[in-house]
Fold this protein.
Amino acid sequence: MRIRTRYAPSPTGFMHIGNLRSALYEYLIAKHDDGVFILRLEDTDQNRYVDAAADAIFEMLKITGLAYDEGPGVGGPYGPYIQSERKDDYLPVAEKLIESGKAYYCFCDKERLDALSDEHGVARYDRRCLGLPAEEVQKRLASGEPYVIRQWIPEGKTAFHDEVYGDIAIENSEMEDQILIKSDGMPTYNFANVVDDHAMNITHVARGSEYLTSTPKYKLLYEALDWEVPVYVHLPLMLNEEGHKISKRQGDMSVADLLKMGFLPEAVVNYAALLGWSPEGNNEIFTLPELVEAFEPKNISKSPSTFDMKKLTWVNGEHIKRLPFEKYCEMALPFLREAVKTPGVDYKKLAEMTQSRVSFVKDCAALVDFIDALPDYETELYTHKKMKTNPEIALRGLEVSVDALEAQEEPGWDNDSLFALLSKAAETSGMARSQLLWPVRTALSGKPASPCGATELCELLGKAETLKRLRAGIEKIKGSVA
Ligand code: GLU
């Protein structure tokens, strides 16, 4: 049978990384086997409905590339399935359960139910309406008395298998006769969920592990209706950096916030995949199509996963490196143009130099901000053990470099020629090449790290500016040594 999965969000708030992970895993389970992925909005609990939450869900799925395959609307474009638009489909199923004795009408009002609450405010229904004679029920229904429909939970034990958590069994006595249809005629969330999973032929249900405890109730409903139970894949708990469960009501960051901060959609998707799933090899960087290939539900872990901003940042940098250059250029140019105003600068070159060095595209600006004006720096920057240099050696290195560079014609002022020139000058003066290049790099950028090497910097800045900065470096060292 073809795999069919669904992402079934309740639009009660923004979409956080845990929600995205559920959507993604549902998508991957389906697509790994060429199956069908659908979107269903579970909005029957109108009190908790947050306007705009649904729109945000559509938008996030679009941006992250998790496209759903079908929905109401013949011939497409499909809309998602929306439970509040299907409300007439639930009552007949509940009535069928009443006919077979697996559910019953309950007329107990709020006051009575409140009175059943224990000292913790937890009410457990005492089945007062379970044995009502049929005529009485009919009379009360006919008189328009408000009612709910409750599921009758039989005695015994309910067991189910979960792909991640294994075999689970619970005593039915721990379950209440839950409401299936509310007094306003709307189905409860749990009931609509099961009816729709069946109606939509869902084969695999992936959702947060907080649903593990409700699953026996769902299983009993499937059995009562003689429906096939889907494969359950419960996902490990997701914690925020403070060690609390990630929640849209806890003020945890939304996927939209992460995108606004400069995380690429493909990085967020990649990172969400790693929150509870381990790829088989060492590689952790995947595009969505690569995830579809590699994803195996059997590699989902039971242990809670913790959101780690540092790791997400690393994943983002890796995805920036893999962006097609044109795409990176398009994204980086506004930042580079803002950071560098020197006429004649080759912005494409700056983009080239920065692409593999940033965790966020916007960070490219800070890498090139020395071009317009040399930042003030400490002479200590000239000390570098591996490069065998310190301010004194650097002074000589700079003097030798200035002599060599002064003689270089402008038409040959390019990285390769300059590199050959300085290598030769080092050799002739009996110094290591690094003892020229490190000081030159430092004097030109004024920074402990630059997006390219010494002679590339010379090319970038041009002859006049290069010599000016190198001479300033010489003066600076002399001033500090004196
Ligand atoms: N509507 C539920 C939620 O937003 C989804 C539960 C499920 O996937 O079955 O958490």
Summary: The mean pLDDT is 93. The CA atoms of residues 189 and 244 lie 25 Å apart. Residues 463-481 form the longest helix (19 residues). Residues 8-10, 42, 193, 205, 207, 211 surround glutamic acid (CB under 6 Å).
